[in-house]
Specification:
Blueprint lengths: L8 H5 L2 E5 L4 E3 L7 E7 L2 E6 L5 E7 L4 E2 L14 E4 L3 E7 H10 L1 H26 L3 H11 L3 E3 L3 H8 L3 H13 L3 E4 L2 E4 L4
Length: 196
């Protein structure tokens, strides 16, 4: 459920809604976070660029997901990476003053906001655990586990970035697991067979 459905018409009209094109940068690394965003359409990523030119994706944001919520009340409310559109997107923004007022005056909004923050923390913990796994196969298997044994992706390169693996390594691994009848691949979807 989109948390914005809990707003009154008057509250909704106070939001700032912006549309973006694929590859647009919404926020730059170290830019101050002054509002939370709720993704109405599209897909975003939060990523950094390393000195060798490679990309590290910290988080992906899908429709109805929120971002900036972990920063807005932080003592250091600065984006840790670039917020970039992976596709055309539409975002609703709630500034800090509006958010504080909503959290005080709308109990249902408050409970859903806390739930979203809790789920965000779980997702972050999953990502930290993923990064702690050094073996490529074990990392992919863990990624299957946290995604209910099914992975949908836009490209092998994007999936490799998501898993913090080299594209070639992931491609070889997927082909090997297909031959071993551990996974099946159909277009941009991979399913784990023995985990079902």
């Amino acid at each position: 459920m989109n948390i914005l459905n809990l707003l009154t018409n008057k509250q909704y009209k106070q939001l700032i809604i912006k549309e973006y094109k694929q590859d647009d940068i919404l926020f730059k690394e170290n830019e101050k976070c002054e509002s939370i965003g709720i993704l109405l359409e599209g897909r975003l990523s939060i990523q950094s660029y390393l000195d060798d030119g490679s990309i590290v994706i910290y988080n992906t944001i899908d429709k109805d997901d929120m971002f900036g919520n972990n920063l807005i009340y932080s003592s250091s409310p600065y984006y840790k990476g670039f917020v970039i559109c992976q596709s055309d997107a539409k975002v609703a923004y709630i500034n800090k003053a509006q958010l504080t007022n909503l959290l005080k005056s709308n109990d249902e909004f408050l409970l859903n906001y806390l739930n979203i923050n809790s789920n965000f923390s779980k997702k972050l913990n999953d990502r930290i655990k993923l990064l702690s796994i050094s073996n490529a196969k074990d990392r992919l298997m863990y990624y299957f586990h946290i995604n209910n044994n099914e992975i949908t992706y836009t490209s092998i390169t994007a999936l490799a970035n998501e898993l913090y693996l080299q594209r070639e390594t992931l491609s070889r691994l997927i082909n090997k697991l297909i031959k071993e009848n551990i996974i099946i691949k159909n277009k941009n979807k991979i399913e784990l067979l023995w985990g079902k």
